[in-house]
Amino acid sequence: MSKRQLKKIKKKEKWLERKGEKRLKEREKAKQKRAYARAHNIDLGPSRKALKKSTMADSNCKVGVTIDMSFDDLMIDKDVAKLTKQILRCYTLNRRALAPMQFSLTSFNGTSRMHMQKHNGYQHWDVKFYVESYLNVYPKEKVIYLTSESENIINHLEHDCVYVIGGLVDHNSHKGLCHKLAKEAGVRHGRLPLDEFLQMKARKVLTVDHVFEILLRVSEGKTWQEAFLQVLPERKNAQPILLLEENESTLKNCEDEENVCETNGTVYISLNINV
Asked: Which residue stretches does the UniProt record annotate as biased composition, category Basic residues (predicted)?
């Protein structure tokens, strides 16, 4: 056994020893957080009792979302672990929604499944797990594969369809793969209307949980623009296009009688007042 393997075993043993202690600390911290919230009238969201009643089966939302887990062979172990964390966040978001979407994982039979087994009891989550491909689970005509390379813009969610998110963390190494696979499978494909509502300086490649949450927020009644601005992290530096158009109009209308300057995307107008 190599030194690296021994180091891993010792690290795991140490983690197992501290697991119980860590869980107790987390419970105490959560207890203090609830007490503080009650004392200051802070809403912590739905209670555990309410969440038990909020299930996919009882949900008014019938929008289907599945994560295609067929890309394990294209990812290193570290990226598979990242994908697992993103799926955990998707589950948490859906679990806390008043009207959860119909959430599933398809082609769930590789390395990702092994990583998920580290989370005891995941089989009992309110998520549907399928070892089969999405093509063998859902009617072909009801499938819409989400891919940023698609020429089709999704303007609204079809409530009787299933939106497929490619479960791939590849740092853009396999650009266009999901689009290619969707075309080969003969299923519909589309992209989120990012360009129509936002101007972004950063890359427009979104993580699995970001795409999932955007769909969830839109299913809850938010506009695309509201969902994008709520979900996308600040590092994306996303700005609503409507605001930029209004700024350009302001510049055009006021340039003759006002001094206008723009810094970091913010328009500053200095009025010339004659006294």
From this structure: 1-13
Q: Is 90 annotated as a binding residue?
A: no
Q: State whether CATH 3.40.1280.30 applies to domain 49-191.
A: yes
**Spans of all domains in the chain:** 49-191
Selected catalytic residue, list 43, 58, 126, 170: 170
Q: Is the pLDDT of residue 273 over 50?
A: no
Please state whether beta strands 188-190 and 198-199 pair in parallel, antiparallel, or not at all (unpaired): unpaired
- Our answer to whether residue 68 is catalytic in this structure is no
Tell me the pLDDT tens digit for each residue of 204-226.
678 999 999 999 999 999 999 99
121 is in an annotated binding site: no
Whether the predicted pLDDT of 203 surpasses 60: no
Torsion (CA) 91, 220, 68, 170 in degrees, nearest 10: -80
Whether residue 146 is annotated as binding a ligand: the answer is yes
- Whole-Å CA distances, 61 to 77, 89, 161, 210: 34, 19, 11, 19
- CA-CA-CA-CA dihedral for 186, 190, 191, 195, to nearest 10: 130
